[in-house]
Amino acid sequence: MTPVQPKLSTDDVSLLMVLIDTNPFFWSAANTTSLSFSKFLSHVVAFLNSVLLLNQLNQVVVIATGINTCDYVYDSAAAGALPNQRAESLLQKLVEFVVKDEQLGKEDSVDGIGSSLLSGSLSMALCYIQRVFRSGPHHPQPRILCLHGSPDGPEQYVAIMNAIFSAQRSMVPIDSCLLGAQHSAFLQQASYITGGVYLKPQQLDGLFQYLSTVFASDLYSRNFLQLPKPVGVDFRASCFCHKNTIDMGYICSVCLSIFCKHHKNCSTCGSVFGQAQTNAPSTSNQKRKTPET
Q1: Which sign does the torsion angle of CA 198, 202, 204, 205 carry?
Q2: Which candidate, 196, 123, 198, 195, places its Cα nearest to that of 161?
């Protein structure tokens, strides 16, 4: 009986899942700086064309990440082969998506820069990758690239961490290119846990140069390249009760839920907690026995 052949991936063929942040609140604030949304798209389109030119078998899938929804906006396997057709198809789908996302959020008012639905786009990317895994024994090497600028949404902590661990289990690296002013703790953890690259460009005018030199190479070629490494990773978690980032808290021993304050019951699994020992007797009041001499 012949043994079952495991699934093999081609070394130099890549499946690149690109997650584009279309948060209008972020881009309206970033429009006053050196990078506008139109310039950002020109850099991204040039980068996607360069990835497809590196190998004719490479595949690129773009997922738009909005405030209220996320959706597939481009797939090189279904789009035209000409570069101008790729750009026109991508831009048209992006316009339709932005209008749809705006209509869904008309009733909700957002103060300041709201967070984008990063957990949803990560889940959609992983679902697409799993479908590719099951398509046949040979498949390209998948990886995820997050082009993100919005601040982290603490309410998405559980969903994002589940997506990160799912990507780690599937051996799918998550690369992160942060466009905002502040670092993202979620994306730092995602790149660190999955073995991806985390980068915050210093000069956004040269975004295409950053993308082409750091994120265009396939996973096999990365073994021979000196890619940038993050200085530090923020491993702080968000509590399940108030969705705040905390340094110290309480953890349920059954389901590992995190809380910033002591509760009687776990809101996730319903486990009953004991009383917090705040008035423990001090050791100075206890009698100590000394050995006789």
Answers
A1: negative
A2: 123
pTM over cut 0.70: yes
The most distant pair of C-alpha atoms in the chain lies apart, rounded to whole Å, by 94
Higher pLDDT, 28 or 131: 131
Contact criterion met (CB below 8 Å) for 135 and 105: no
Q: Kindly tell me if the per-residue pLDDT of 70 is higher than 90.
A: yes
Structure-token match 């968000």, residue found:
238
| Closest to 148 measured CA to CA, from 112, 190, 108 | 190
Separation between Cα atoms, residue 55 and residue 138, nearest integer Å:
16
Confidence of residue 2 (pLDDT cuts 50, 70, 90): very low
- Note whether 218 and 12 are within 8 A (CB): yes
Question: From the CB of residue 271, how many other CB atoms can be counted at a distance below 10 Å?
Answer: 13
With H, G, I as helix, E, B as strand and everything else as coil, classify residue 28.
Answer: helix
Distances (CA, A) of 290 to 145, 282, 286, 287, 293: 65, 18, 13, 10, 9
The residues pairing with 59 across neighbouring beta strands, listed in sequence order, are 15
Range with the poorest average pLDDT among 25-34, 37-46, 78-87, 184-193: 78-87
